[in-house]
Amino acid sequence: MTALYVLDVPENTSVAKVAGEDGTVTVNKIGPYFEITADGPIVVDRRATGCRHAVWYSCVAGVAGGSITQHDKNALRVEPWVDPA
Measured between alpha carbons, how far is 15 from 65 in angstroms, rounded to an integer? Predict the structure, then answer.
């Protein structure tokens, strides 16, 4: 499972909201963070969030079970780690 953590502040709420619109993604609260999880990749379209660039590039608090493979002006993409076995 892949997890993306975003601090729960008003500026980041739309990131969690847009991520949660994907039927394969689950959004929960863990302490002061949104925990965005999926069995596959997590993809968030920046334009859909309405985030300005400064907020967009600072929204990631952490990642578990995967790696960020895209974080540019278009999207944030977290891909799960692949078991080499």
Answer: 19
DSSP string, 16-31: HHHHHTSTTEEEEEET
Q: Are 48 and 32 in contact (CB under 8 A)?
A: no
Q: What is the pLDDT of residues 40-74, one digit of tens each?
A: 999 999 999 999 999 999 999 999 999 999 999 99
Residue 77: CB atoms within 10 A of its CB come to 18
Reading across the β-sheet that carries 66-71, which strands appear in turn? Answer: 42-45, 75-80, 66-71
Confirm whether pTM is higher than 0.90: yes
Checking DSSP bridges between strand 42-45 and strand 33-38, what pairing results, if any? unpaired
What span, in angstroms and rounded, lies between the C-alpha atoms of 80 and 57? 20
> Contact 71/15 with Cβ under 8 angstroms?
no
